């Protein structure tokens, strides 16, 4: 598929010398969902703000649907919907007027039916005549989402869209994301809810310290970097791992009541058969065995902490 958003060597250095973005390059395909993960201060919001033209890049280039986001700002920005982290709404304006005005800002003709459809999807239709100041925090977040969708963008940025909101809104939001993707809308989201990224994203990007560590298909990332663990539960706890089991690099867990073995599912041999034989030879009696696979959160924590990042993962598919 064609790239609808192309970012090349994007850098942002603030007046004090802080380098928020360090040569980020990224291509995003039309119709995909990209989850951008990173700790606080990683550069996620700066990247989004720069692409949207809110922040001016120190150097680099951004193309949105073929339009330069500086030289052809209006055309580029019209393709983008943005749901920011902060709730910035006119408190005395009515919900319906706020959303309709946002559509007009992008040169779209009035379309009451479209505005009604957006408000209904976000459970805001009954609040259409309410002032923003009368709404709860969760309802205000819904209004932000409605504003971002009002002009029918081809790209939607969701910057921590469900942070601090109710479970109902989170479910509504992801239902809308599924519908938008089906309609060909490209979605880039940042989130601290890594399980959400794991559930809905096509690709995952990891950014930290202003650098993009990798961008990779979610399934490929988890297959390449994920590990499985085998927990060998014992009938009686032990104080230490027998020396005859040292080669397996086991961990003693559950107060000595279990042995934890980590292995790579891609290896030619997992070593499980040998391990279980050696455990029996050491005189330990098994009560049960359980396995678990690394989650996206496990992989993410390992990457940003500097553990387990393969040398060829720094650029990944980002260039």
UniProtKB/TrEMBL annotation:
It holds the Pfam family ABC_tran. Residues 5-234 form the ABC transporter domain. GO terms for molecular function: ATP binding; ATP hydrolysis activity. SMART domains: AAA (SM00382). Keywords: ATP-binding, Nucleotide-binding, Transport. The keyword Nucleotide-binding applies. Coiled coil: none annotated. It comes from the Bacteria. This is Multidrug ABC transporter ATP-binding protein.
């Amino acid at each position: 598929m064609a790239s609808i958003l192309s970012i090349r060597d994007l850098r942002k250095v603030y007046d004090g010398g802080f380098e928020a973005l360090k040569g980020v390059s990224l291509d995003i395909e039309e119709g995909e969902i990209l989850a951008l993960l990173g700790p606080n201060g990683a550069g996620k919001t700066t990247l989004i703000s720069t692409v949207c033209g809110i922040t001016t890049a120190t150097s680099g280039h951004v193309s949105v649907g073929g339009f330069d986001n500086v030289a052809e700002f209006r055309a580029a920005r019209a393709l983008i919907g943005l749901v920011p982290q902060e709730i910035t709404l006119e408190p005395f304006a009515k919900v319906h007027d706020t959303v309709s005005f946002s559509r007009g800002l992008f040169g779209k003709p009035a379309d009451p039916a479209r505005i009604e459809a957006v408000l209904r999807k976000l459970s805001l239709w009954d609040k259409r005549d309410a002032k923003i100041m009368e709404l709860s925090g969760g309802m205000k977040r819904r209004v932000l989402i409605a504003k971002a969708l009002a002009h029918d963008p081809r790209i939607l940025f969701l910057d921590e869209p469900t942070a601090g909101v109710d479970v109902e809104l989170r479910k509504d939001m992801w239902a809308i994301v599924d519908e938008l993707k089906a309609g060909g809308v490209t979605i880039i989201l940042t989130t601290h809810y890594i399980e959400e990224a794991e559930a809905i994203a096509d690709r995952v990007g990891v950014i930290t310290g202003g650098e993009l560590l990798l961008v990779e298909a979610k399934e490929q990332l988890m297959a390449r970097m994920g590990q499985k663990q085998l927990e060998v539960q014992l009938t009686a706890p032990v104080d230490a791992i027998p020396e005859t089991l040292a080669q397996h690099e086991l961990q003693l867990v559950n107060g000595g009541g279990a042995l934890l073995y980590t292995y790579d599912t891609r290896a030619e041999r997992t070593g499980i058969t040998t391990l279980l034989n050696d455990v029996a030879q050491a005189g330990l009696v098994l009560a049960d065995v359980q396995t678990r696979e690394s989650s996206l959160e496990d992989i993410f924590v390992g990457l940003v902490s500097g553990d387990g990042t393969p040398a060829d993962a720094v650029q990944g598919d980002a260039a």
